[in-house]
Amino acid sequence: MNERLIEHIQGHAAAHPDALAITGHETICWRKFFENITRSSQSLPADAGVIAFMMDNSSDWLTTDLACLMAERIALPLPAFFTDTQIQHALVRTGCRHVITDQPGRFPHGLQRAWPSHTGQQALQLVTLPATPAVTLPAGTAKITFTSGSTGDPKGVCLAQPALERTAHALNERMAECATGTHLCALPLAVLLENIAGAYRGWFAGSSISLWPLATLGMRGASGFDATPFHDTLVRSAAATVIVLPQMLSALVALQRPAPPSLRFMAVGGAPLPAHTLLSARALGYPVFEGYGLSECGSVVSLNAPGHDRPGSIGKPLSHVRVRIEDDEISVSGNPCLGYAGEAVHTDPVATGDIGRLDDEGFLYIEGRKTNRIVTALGRNISPEWVESTLQGQPGIRQCFVTGHGQAYLGALLVSADAHSATQAIEQANAQLPDYAQVKRWQCIDEGFSVTNQCLTANGRLRRPQIEQHYATTIATLFTSR
Predict the structure, then answer these.
(1) 335 Cβ partners below 8 Å, 6+ apart?
(2) Is 224 helix (H, G, I), strand (E, B) or coil?
(3) CA–CA distance, 251 with 277 (Å, rounded to integer)
(4) 257 phi and psi, to 5 degrees?
(5) Bridge partners for 305 per DSSP
(6) Per-residue pLDDT for 395 more than 90?
(7) Tens digit of each residue's pLDDT (9 = 90 or more) over 93-102
(8) What is the CATH number of domain 1-371?
(9) Closest alpha carbon to 226 in 204, 202, 250
(10) Among residues 272, 276, 265, which one has the least CA distance to residue 306?
């Protein structure tokens, strides 16, 4: 039977009190870490069923997360990259009145009082907000993660703790050859992938968690990324494992620095990964393995790993879930969420909305989003992600967006170094595509797709309706007769 996280941390603190649970910008042993969790759990507001927290990556973040678990309060991590409107939506949707944060200015209508930082390296405040209507959440909810999905308001996915722990244990099973050693948290801890596949998984494996302020890791605001300080921190932390997004890996490859010798496993996920990026990264020594998951299934569903690796796929499903293909759509059962905040209870299996296939050896492939499918005027069904992946496989293309629903051909918006590079990339990509899926007209745009301009989700997926709206005039010219 899989061990529970709090019991594991308590046992590790008793057996290895002076070993390090946290390294990096802070250094905290297991004994002190468990004491901090216990103290924080006893200090949480007595009238709070849901505790929100928004702060930079730190031991205080993880202490607060685990204090909620110990005190049986519902944890509501709020990503700092959320807009004020998204934050307000999350608080109202969950009936949350209490926020622990290092950014109290984002909660101007609340009553603030100092909240103790266990390291003294952050100025934390407990903000108590005005009362909101009570909200009934699914029984057993331990954590609510709000997805900054591709459409509409973010949805609050209600998760039970056993589901999250099953994911962490299944990941360590898949990563058996390289699960141990220091894990560097390179993504915001409020992103479920880093929280579960990074910290929780690492602790179950007996790893130390290396924490640094996000700016030290090269994060520049909501969407900027500088690979130089990230690589420096990767070396300095002596990380064995790390999780990155495709755009982070692309920037690292462009830097052309070799992988540090300590690195044994680099997971990449969140959005499609161009094949040439993976191959280029491996040529530099980065042990890159692509995976796939979604919040509704407690994060990771499938993952490549040593001994279970097929580039181009998103790996074999982990042992705690079952994956089927139903009407071309990936369906996942075995580890579902409890529902959405304010909505009906979710069901098992989870219909992912992703078009995919399983090969004869059980490797899973994604071919696009069901809701994104383009039907041309000639009746051809095309997944734009297929064409976009082929385009981004060309060195001259940094980002692209393919459109053409109801049109006679496909058009594209390109973020490229220059028009000549874009033209060459289009020609090379079209040579790999059937005629009906070739891009006939395109336009280079100066501004890339980002979280800031609402054209990307936090994990790097295109927000297609927003792009259609933002670039409506430019897109229209792609289908105007010359």
Answers:
(1) 163, 166, 167, 297, 298, 320, 321
(2) strand
(3) 10
(4) -100, 140
(5) 308
(6) no
(7) 999 999 999 9
(8) 3.40.50.12780
(9) 250
(10) 265
For residue 449, give the nearest of 471, 419, 475 by alpha carbon.
471
Decide: 405 and 374 in contact? Cβ < 8 Å.
yes
* Domain locations in the chain as residue ranges: 1-371, 373-478
Q: Give which of 403, 469, 472, 468 is closest to 442, Cα–Cα.
A: 403
Residue 57 and residue 69: Cα distance in Å, rounded?
18
Q: Are 23 and 237 in contact (CB under 8 A)?
A: yes
235 pLDDT higher than 80: yes
Position of tokens 């001994």? Answer: 307
Tokens 């042990």: give the residue. 287
CATH architecture of 373-478: 2-Layer Sandwich (3.30)
265 within 8 A of 290, measured Cβ to Cβ: no
* Amino acid occupying residue 459: N
Can you give the pLDDT at residue 179? Answer: 92
Dihedral over Cα of 351, 352, 355, 358: its sign: negative
Convert the pLDDT of each residue in 254-305 to its tens digit. 999 999 999 999 999 887 788 888 999 999 999 999 999 999 999 999 999 9
How many CA atoms are closer than 13 Å to the CA of 402, on its beta-carbon side? 27
C-beta of residue 185 within 8 angstroms of C-beta of residue 198 = yes
* Residue given tokens 């499903």 in the structure block: 317
Q: Which residue has the tokens 């540090």?
A: 260
